Amino acid sequence: MSSHPTLAFIGGGNMASAILGGLIASGTPAQHLVVVEPFEAQRLVLTEKFGVQTFASAEAASTALTQATMVVWAVKPQSFAEAAAPCAAWVHQAVQVSVMAGIRSDAIARATGSDRVVRAMPNTPALIGEGIAGLFARASVSSTERQQVEALLAPTGALLWVAQESDLDAVTALSGSGPAYIFYFIEAMMTAAERMGLSAEQGKALALATFSGATELARRSDESPAVLRERVTSKGGTTYAALSAMNTAHVDTAFIDAMQAARQRASELGDQFGSAGR
């Protein structure tokens, strides 16, 4: 972010740390970054790791919050209303960026006094700069402010804008929760490896390399995943046997149903937290 505006973070946990680390690495001066974090141990970690200024409360950070052009909300959704109340007097001039699940933009606008709200749904690979985040901006957010949000989040990985806020529920189901699905399959492959006489370590090495390699192949290829799958599936061969077993067990249908369940739960969480800030 070339102009290095003052950025304030409400909450200093893992996702905030991922964003802070990316900003520092890309050249944002630490003195332009402030964090409101109530837990002393975490404040010490942030200060030692990034050199940013931290505060235990919004009141203590009031001057910095008033100067902030962007405020990043990185608290647990159930803590948002409590965290926002003491901040509202100081942050209404800023663009509000939320990385919280469930809290809808209208609730954030009410709680902060700013209608310039961008919601981001990142995932845990953001911690190593390999994530992807779905983004939604309210109509009051300008194109320049969108670009500033992109610059803020770019170090965490890829970005994908969606046209309507409800689309973030689908993003949550696919990529937000998605890493857990991959870990689930890796666990299953490790279990299968042990049952077939390999060690868990060997199974893990094979599974990780296979997921990584197949993903990169799909990324580089102009062909669809379906075509790539067909290329390694000879009728009567080993891959055919495995996929036939999966089809008989309706694994594809179960997997799609699982993501539909995740999307439904994301919507329910939005309804549950929709009154935040009222």
Q: Which short descriptors sum up this protein?
A:
alpha/beta, 278 residues, 13% strand, 8 strands, 13 helices
Note down, in words, how this protein is organized:
The chain has helices at 14-25, 40-50, 62-67, 80-84, 88-91, 105-112, 143-153, 167-176, 178-195, 200-220, 225-231, 238-248, 251-272; strands spanning 7-10, 33-36, 53-55, 70-73, 95-98, 117-121, 131-137, 157-161. With 278 residues, it is of the alpha/beta class. The protein is elongated. It starts with 6 loop residues before the first strand and ends in a 6-residue tail after the last helix.
Topology, pairings included?
Elements: E1 7-10, H1 14-25, E2 33-36, H2 40-50, E3 53-55, H3 62-67, E4 70-73, H4 80-84, H5 88-91, E5 95-98, H6 105-112, E6 117-121, E7 131-137, H7 143-153, E8 157-161, H8 167-176, H9 178-195, H10 200-220, H11 225-231, H12 238-248, H13 251-272
Parallel strand pairs: 1-2, 1-4, 2-3, 4-5, 5-6, 7-8
Antiparallel strand pairs: 6-7
- How many strands in all? 8
Q: In angstroms, what is the radius of gyration?
A: 22 Å
Q: In terms of structural class, how would the helical and strand content be classed?
A: alpha/beta
C-alpha termini separation:
33 Å
Task: Please provide the ordered H/E string of secondary-structure elements.
Answer: EHEHEHEHHEHEEHEHHHHHH
Strand content: 5-15%
Please give the largest β-sheet: 8 strands, mixed
The level of helicity is: 40-55%
The helix count comes to: 13
Spatial order of strands in the largest sheet: 3-2-1-4-5-6-7-8
Provide the residue-averaged pLDDT. Answer: 93
